[in-house]
Design brief:
Elements (H helix, E strand, L loop, with lengths): L2 E2 L5 E2 L2 H11 L11 E6 L2 E6 L13 H20 L3 E6 L8 E9 L1 E2 L4 H9 L14 H9 L7 E5 L2 H19 L2 H9 L44 E7 L4 H20 L3 E5 L1 H4 L1 H10 L6 E9 L16 H4 E2 L1
Parallel strand pairs: 3-12
Antiparallel strand pairs: 1-7, 2-6, 3-4, 4-6, 5-6, 8-9, 9-11, 10-11
Length: 328
C-alpha cells in the first residue's frame, strides 16, 4: 500500500534508523572484520571507518577496509529502499575527520510497502568458499552483473577469454606465492580465523580439503565438508575498479560490489572476493596492463559461479552487537 505524504519529507524515526544500521552490518567485509562505525546525530547518519580493525600487514593503505565500508553503505541504501524509505548520500564530506566516509539522510515523501523479499536477500547473502560446479556462468549473466557497477561510477569487466584467464591465473598464483612467505600476513590472517567473539571467520566456514593450485585459498584448511569431485573450469572472474586508486573510488567500488553480490545471490549464484592479487602492487599493475581491456585501476576481483544443487546452507558469520558499531 502506498500514499502521498505531502511536500515535506518525513524523517526516519530512530527505530527505523536502528533497523537499517543492523541490516547494513550484514554486509561482507575483509576477514569479517566489520570495520565500520555508524553515528546518528541531528538527523544525519554518518558512516566512519573503524581504523582499529584495519589489517596493517595485508591492507596497509586501507583499500579492503574502505571497500568493506562501501558494501555496508550500499546495504544500508538497499535496506532503506526495501523498507519504503529513500536515501541521499553525501560521500567523503569536506572538512570531516579522516575516518568519516559518508553522510546519509533517510526520509520519504511517498509511502511504499515493504519489499520482504529484498530483506530476506540481505539476510541470505553469504560467502560460500566451497568449490563451484563445472557449469560456467553464461556471458549474458556476467554482463548483467557488470552492468550493476555502472550507476556507482565503477568499472566492471569479466575475464572471459582463454588467454586472459590463463594470464590471470599465473598472476594470482604469483601473488599467493609472494604472500605465503610473508610471516606478518600469515599471523594477521590467523588472528581472524576461529576467534572467540562476534567477528572473524569461523573454522566451520572454511573448506576441509585443500584446493587445487590454480584456485588456492588464502586461508588455512577448515572443517567444512567439501569432498565433491568438482573442477574449477566453471569459475568466472569479474574485476571491479575505477579511474583512480583512492578512498573515494574504493568506497564506490564497495557499493558496486554489494550491488553485484546481492544480484548474484538473487539469481542463485555464489560470489567469492579475491583480493590477494590486488594486494601485491606489482601484480595489480600487471593485471591492469595485461588482463583488462578497459585499462582501469582494479580494486578487487571476485569469483562467480554456481554451487552444487543440494548443498546444505551455511551458518552465517557472526556480527558485532549493534551497540559496538552504532553511536547515538
Amino acid at each position: 500500500m502506498s500514499g502521498r505524504l505531502g511536500t515535506r519529507p518525513e524523517q526516519a524515526p530512530p527505530a527505523v534508523i536502528e533497523r537499517l544500521v543492523s541490516l547494513a552490518c550484514l554486509a561482507p567485509s575483509v576477514h569479517n572484520t566489520q570495520p565500520w562505525r555508524w553515528r546518528y546525530d541531528a538527523g544525519a547518519l554518518e558512516l566512519c571507518a573503524d581504523l582499529t580493525r584495519r589489517l596493517p600487514a595485508e591492507d596497509p593503505r586501507g583499500r579492503n577496509l574502505t571497500i568493506s565500508c562501501g558494501a555496508a553503505l550500499h546495504h544500508l541504501q538497499f535496506a532503506a529502499r526495501a523498507l519504503g524509505w529513500e536515501t541521499s548520500v553525501a560521500p567523503l564530506p569536506a572538512g570531516g575527520p579522516d575516518t568519516l566516509l559518508a553522510r546519509v539522510a533517510v526520509f520519504r515523501t511517498v509511502r511504499h510497502g515493504v519489499a520482504r523479499g529484498d530483506i530476506d536477500l540481505l539476510r541470505s547473502r553469504c560467502t560460500d568458499r566451497r568449490r563451484f560446479t563445472a557449469w560456467p556462468v553464461p556471458a549474458d549473466r556476467l554482463d548483467d552483473l557488470c552492468d550493476r557497477a555502472g550507476p556507482w561510477g565503477v568499472h566492471a569487466e569479466p575475464v572471459t577469454t582463454d588467454a586472459a584467464r590463463f594470464r590471470l591465473e599465473l598472476l594470482a598464483n604469483r601473488a599467493l606465492s609472494f604472500l605465503e612467505v610473508e610471516g606478518r600476513r600469515l599471523l594477521e590472517q590467523d588472528r581472524w580465523i576461529d576467534r572467540d567473539g562476534p567477528d572473524g571467520i569461523p573454522l566451520e566456514l572454511l573448506p576441509d580439503a585443500p584446493e587445487p593450485l590454480h584456485a588456492r585459498s588464502r586461508f588455512r584448511t577448515g572443517v567444512l565438508e567439501d569432498t565433491r569431485l568438482v573442477i574449477h573450469s566453471g569459475d568466472r572472474v569479474i574485476a571491479l575498479g575505477g579511474a583512480r586508486d583512492d578512498v573515494g573510488s574504493w568506497l564506490r567500488t564497495g557499493e558496486a560490489l554489494s550491488d553485484l553480490w546481492l544480484e548474484a545471490t538473487r539469481a542463485g549464484m555464489s560470489v567469492i572476493p579475491m583480493s590477494q592479487p590486488i594486494e601485491v602492487e606489482s601484480t595489480r599493475h600487471e593485471i591492469a596492463r595485461t588482463v583488462l581491456t578497459s585499462r582501469f585501476e582494479p580494486h578487487v576481483l571476485v569469483r562467480v559461479g554456481w554451487q552444487a544443487i543440494g548443498r546444505r546452507d551455511l551458518p552465517r558469520t557472526p556480527r558485532r552487537p549493534l551497540h559496538d558499531v552504532f553511536l547515538r
